[in-house]
Amino acid sequence: MKDELFANYKTLESDRLSLRPITLDDTSDLFEIYSNKEVMLYFDDREAFKDISEAEKMAKDYVEALKNKWSMRWGIVLKETGKLIGTCGFHAISDYDKRIEIGYDLNRDYWGNKVMKEALSMIISFAFENSDVNRIEAFVEPPNTASHMLLERLGFVMEGTLRKHEMCRGELIDIEILSLLRE
Ligand SMILES: CC(C)(COP(=O)(O)OP(=O)(O)OC[C@H]1O[C@@H](n2cnc3c(N)ncnc32)[C@H](O)[C@@H]1OP(=O)(O)O)[C@@H](O)C(=O)NCCC(=O)NCCS
Questions:
Q1: What spacing in Å lies between the alpha carbon of 139 and ligand 1's midpoint?
Q2: Mean pLDDT by 10-residue block, N- to C-terminus, for the chain (183 residues)?
Q3: Ligand 1 atom at minimum distance from 111 CA
Q4: Which ligand 1 atom is at minimum distance from the Cα of 113?
Q5: Going from the N-terminus, what domains does the chain have, and what CATH number goes with each?
Q6: Residues 6+ apart with CB under 8 A from 159
Q7: How far is CA 64 from CA 49, 58, 59, 154, in A?
Q8: Which of 33, 104, 108, 111 is the Cys-Cys partner for 88 at CB 3.0 to 4.6 Å?
Q9: pTM (predicted TM-score)
Q10: Can you cite an annotated GO cellular component (predicted)?
């Protein structure tokens, strides 16, 4: 599964979006995304970026992770302007279990236009068509309604709540787990 996924990784296109590998040239667009407090509210235990060097490190991490087959991320580019407005991809790739985790984030200025629904549809189709992955899972903080609704619209099923699962902002918080199966 994992080898097929990485061997077939490529730019994905729709009329409106181009999903392409992230490069160091994307640093300033990434900074715009990750320096926004609303975008970062439910982003693991990280605070909004304050310095461009944090975005540069993020870009480097995405490049390295793809090269080393740790995880795959696409930059979501609005074709009309050429601007990178978000990222999405797969990590926690469990080859033996044919299971991957999905992740995504969108520049605050572009929320509510079905950009992420379109982007995730593309990468989910990519994963199922180009590998024998069986399960795509997602972990969401309960107050993150936008993320939960987005996943449900894409066919993900809520499986339950992992109680006190993660240390976040100084306290242990619950996390919802959702998944989409090949079948
Ligand atoms: C989650 C996020 C990517 C959604 O992106 P988006 O492009 O605005 O979402 P979409 O416009 O594609 O919405 C998809 C569906 O979710 C629903 N949705 C989106 N935001 C919603 C909200 N705030 N409340 C309720 N439903 C919402 C939409 O109604 C839409 O359903 P529809 O097709 O039936 O209308 C964006 O809010 C974001 O970047 N959040 C911060 C990062 C983050 O939380 N990442 C995930 C961590 S688990």
A1: 14
A2: 96 98 98 97 91 98 97 98 98 97 98 98 98 98 97 98 94 97 96
A3: 8
A4: 11
A5: 2-136 (3.40.630.30)
A6: 177, 178, 179
A7: 20, 10, 9, 29
A8: 104
A9: 0.97
A10: cytoplasm
